[in-house]
């Protein structure tokens, strides 16, 4: 087996892989115009999608549209997930609150065991958080 393992290591060492440089944490203050968000980015992920979400959000500039995130995650983890992303990203990332206005340069993570919906209020979008029944066994649900 040792020769087989050694050959696999030699083969892997010759693989042409693109290097991914880790992005530095933002050094600028998180501030920007508090306008309404005309466009939205909506992200849904199942269990295990946390790193994919980080990979998408981390390089986004403050000029990004408002972002809504629904991640299949139990209560107690969504707030710390949002806080971790907030430290790593230029945009503001937080756990969504009922009645909150969606702003550009902000990402709102659905609270665990709650559904997050969007309502139009004049020129603004407003977040609605509720305890509706699970959808396909999930709350929050990406579906």
From TrEMBL:
<protein>
    <recommendedName>
        <fullName>protein-glutamate methylesterase</fullName>
        <ecNumber>3.1.1.61</ecNumber>
    </recommendedName>
</protein>
<dbReference type="GO" id="GO:0008984">
    <property type="term" value="F:protein-glutamate methylesterase activity"/>
</dbReference>
<keyword id="KW-0378">Hydrolase</keyword>
<dbReference type="GO" id="GO:0000156">
    <property type="term" value="F:phosphorelay response regulator activity"/>
</dbReference>
<dbReference type="InterPro" id="IPR000673">
    <property type="entry name" value="Sig_transdc_resp-reg_Me-estase"/>
</dbReference>
<dbReference type="Pfam" id="PF01339">
    <property type="entry name" value="CheB_methylest"/>
</dbReference>
<dbReference type="GO" id="GO:0005737">
    <property type="term" value="C:cytoplasm"/>
</dbReference>
<dbReference type="GO" id="GO:0006935">
    <property type="term" value="P:chemotaxis"/>
</dbReference>
<feature type="domain" description="CheB-type methylesterase">
    <location>
        <begin position="34"/>
        <end position="143"/>
    </location>
</feature>
<dbReference type="InterPro" id="IPR035909">
    <property type="entry name" value="CheB_C"/>
</dbReference>
């Amino acid at each position: 087996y040792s020769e087989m393992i050694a050959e696999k290591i030699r083969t892997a060492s010759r693989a042409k892989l693109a290097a991914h440089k880790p992005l530095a944490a933002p050094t600028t203050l998180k501030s920007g115009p508090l306008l309404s968000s005309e466009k939205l980015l909506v992200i849904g992920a199942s269990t295990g999608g946390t790193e994919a979400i980080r990979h998408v959000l981390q390089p986004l500039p403050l000029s990004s549209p408002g972002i809504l995130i629904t991640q299949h995650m139990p209560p107690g983890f969504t707030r710390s997930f949002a806080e971790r992303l907030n430290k790593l990203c230029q945009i503001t990332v937080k756990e969504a609150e009922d009645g909150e206005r969606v702003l550009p340069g902000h990402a709102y993570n659905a609270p665990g065991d709650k559904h997050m919906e969007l309502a139009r209020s004049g020129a603004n979008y407003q977040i609605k958080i509720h305890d509706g029944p699970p959808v396909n066994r999930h709350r929050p649900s990406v579906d």
